[in-house]
Amino acid sequence: MSLRVIGGGSDGPLLVLLHGLGASADVWHGVAEHWPGRWLAPDLPGHGGSDPLRRYSFGAMAAAVAAELADEVGDQPVVVLGHSLGGVLALTMATGWFGVPVTSAIGLGIKVRWSAEELAKAAELAARPARTFAGRDEAVARALRVAGLSSPEFADSLVRKEDDGWRPAVDQAAFGVGAPDLPGLLAAARADVVLAAGEHDPMCPEAHLAELQAQHVILPGLGHNAHVEDPAAVARLLP
Fold first, then answer.
1. Which residue from 114, 113, 110, 111 is spatially nearest to 194, judged by alpha carbons?
2. Inter-helix orientation angle 58-73/85-93, to 10°
3. Would you say residue 142 has pLDDT above 90?
4. Fold exhibited by the domain 5-116+174-235
5. Quick check: keyword Hydrolase in the entry (predicted)?
6. By the 8 A CB rule, do 165 and 132 touch?
7. pLDDT single digits (tens) 38-95
8. Is 39 within 8 Å of 102 (Cβ atoms)?
9. CB 186 within 8 A of CB 194
10. Residue 65 and residue 93: Cα distance in Å, rounded?
11. In 10 A of CB 11, how many CB atoms?
């Protein structure tokens, strides 16, 4: 499979940026501007300009990202910053199971608790056929809502033109990825791990983070997409 990857910088430490469900690599431009070295950000499988997977799991997605970045990463130590779904993948790659030499992993806005009702709703959404819209603006509005974003600056990477109209670029099946085993991933991590969330993130309340990591970080005044709201604040989480 093939993933769309954007990046910048030339020398210095390597940063890999992993977006959340429904978003694309483009949401990281603001954070990347604060990184002193080289950075890479893929569209996750089934998102943006990347190919879909036959079946979505955290392991399969992490393996696809690792394979795509293998030539760029080599043996160079890597810092991985991921948001929401991307945060789970950052922790998954920090285990070392996928051959990426991660030294630091930051998980931002990861949903810690999943109810049976939430998982059932996600599975139902994953089984639905993709909705197609007659106009681009309608598809953009839907894609932004799915990703929890408000700025149309990301629109080009979030929608696709099909023969019969426009639709969000995200593969519906990706919504069925399930709930992560966060305690297991933290126990298996071979890298320094930081968990963080915006103060007003309804998907990742501080009390939930505290159950996983005593020394977590709360970003004052920010919500779920803290990396878009205040890139500089999120960049300060980086080592």
1. 110
2. 60
3. yes
4. Rossmann fold (3.40.50)
5. yes
6. yes
7. 999 999 999 999 999 999 999 999 999 999 999 988 888 999 999 999 999 999 999 9
8. no
9. no
10. 9
11. 7
Domain ranges of the chain: 5-116+174-235, 125-172
Q: From CA 96, how far away is CA 102, in angstroms rounded? A: 7
Q: Which residues contact 201 (CB under 8 A, 6 or more apart)?
A: 109, 222, 223, 224, 226
Q: What is the pLDDT of residues 159-184, one digit of tens each?
A: 999 989 999 999 999 999 999 999 99
Structure tokens at 38: 């080289």
SS3 per-residue string spanning the chain: CCCCEEEECCCCCEEEEECCCCCCHHHHHHHHCCCCCEEEEECCCCCCCCCCCCCCCHHHHHHHHHHHHHHHHCCCCEEEEEECHHHHHHHHHCCCCCCCCEEEEEEECCCCCCCHHHHHHHHHHHHCCCCCECCHHHHHHHHHHHHCCCCHHHHHHHEEEECCEEEECCCHHHHHCCCCCHHHHHHHCCCEEEEEEECCCCCCCHHHHHHHCCCCEEECCCCCCHHHHCHHHHHCCCC
Cα distance between residue 179 and residue 186, in whole Å: 15
Section 207-217 average pLDDT:
94
Q: pLDDT for 97-138, tens place per residue?
A: 999 999 999 999 999 999 999 999 999 999 999 899 999 999
